Amino acid sequence: MKIGPINIPLKEDFSLKSILGFEKTPMNMLVAVLTLAFLAMFVVGVATYLMHGHHAYNVTREHPWGLLIAVYIFFVVSSTGFCIVGSLGDVFGFKDYMMISKRAIFGSIVTILAGFAVIAFEIGHPVTMLIYNVLSPGLTSAIWWMGTLYGIYLTFMVIEFYFLLNNNMQKARIFGLVGLLVGLAAHSNLGGVFGFLNARTISNGVFYPTYFILTAFITGIYLSFIIMGFRYKMNFDEKTKTLLVGLAKIQTLLIAILMFFETWKMLTAIYGGMPNRAEVAEHIIHSGSFMYGEVLMGMLIPFTVMLLTKWRSVTTYVWTSAIGMVGIFFMRYDLVHDTQLKPLQMMKTHEYQLPPSWVEYFPSSTEIMISLGGLGLCMLLYYLGTRAFNLDEEH
Amino acid sequence: MARYGMALDYKNCINCKACEVACKEENGVELGAEKHRIWVGANNPEGQWPLLDIASAAFLPSQCQHCDDAPCQEVCPTHATYYDENGVVRVDSDKCILCSYCMNACPYDARYVDDRTMTVDKCTFCSDTRLARGETTTACQNTCPTKVRTFGDLDDPESEISELLRTREHFSLKSHLGTNPKLFYLT
User: Fold this and answer.
1) Which of A112, A187, A250, B141 has a CB 3.0–4.6 Å from the CB of A79, allowing a cystine?
2) What is the reported pTM?
């Protein structure tokens, strides 16, 4: 398709018929039904939000950030992760990873769009944001830097993808490198959003800005396994196996580093004994979402399986990556919730109540529907991309 | 141009909550327990009946501390939170995008969402109401039956608040965070 000087090489058979004409295997049908169900939830969730505003969410004065912030982070971390994996081939020139570059860069565009779609219904005034982000920029705000840099990052990712589609590897490398750097800056600023909170001692400090980059890479590899498993229906050729074995080895190292980071974070928090920080850390390690979600699903299961199988069973890693992604979701959810666990006012303010101990939060059905809707949007856009573009490596 | 602050003789507080009511009435704050610009914190008396330690049932009236180095102002992505000419930390509701970052960054939980404008609201030291009419007291100060609060210009050496801070011991809440609050608790 040509629009002036812009040439977008769509697949020749791209049409409504090709979109609906997917192979009707049980797995494909399941994914299609799930996608449609999630999209329907998105519509219902957004309609509820438009009618009731933030009252449709379970966020409160003490817990102003809820599930949608966690899901936004989940998507943008996925985007940065895809960008890092995609850059291994087309920016850094690792030949074995070239075959996933185009698919991963497209994944990074799709996931960040899903993230933006979700956050648009959490920010109270998204249009005002676009206006005053430019007219009255708050340069001391990590949110301003994060949002602005993500906008620039998305632009670079789209341009890089365009050049990848047109097999212009030299320009793709330039835009890919700049996009990667901007993406990493944006992503560490997202960690900084939490790191700058000196009122929240559990999150304050350098940990999150660096941890976000590490977990983005891990997320990118988990997602790469999932999309490649789906693409090749678990029948990988030798070249793909080489790619996935390489990614599995990197992943093992990265998870080991993450476990090291997390262990020391908890040790210093608990045994450091800083008021507010120590008791929050103890509360966290006693929560199921941390132990079973983050540690077991996000780290231990994928790590142990890869070690025990000595990086030879790539089909298994597709499934452990799906488990890992559930763990990654809990990492994002816990990050947001744990930051707000400790009440800032320690005295009671109403009669007939007890002084606050921990701030409670559980997402409302509207928040859950919009979040799943974001996932549905992501799946739909990715599927449309696979139908419209050739995401495989061209020779 | 002034630098407004408030001194609180908090041990005189009897938790009558007249200040909370006056604030809502004067500034048109929404009804509802969650929607408050100021509040009175209370500790339950320690011990068991009948041996209750009455002195432990302290009351601590509080509100936005109008910090000189306000974390809420630093984190605002659109400069909706700003210092006015009197050093009062204010919110420009036209610029507020309700990202709620300020609510998370404020160490004093002094901010809430006004459902009418869907923006963040907080104490303004009655800048839009009483001070705008030329009065020199805030609603919470004016109504207090035990005269807990003294409001005034910290830069004016002749003001009552400056005199109080010169002559009385005082402390600030969470001052270790480096926020330089302008609310002072007299001991």
Assistant:
1) A112
2) 0.94
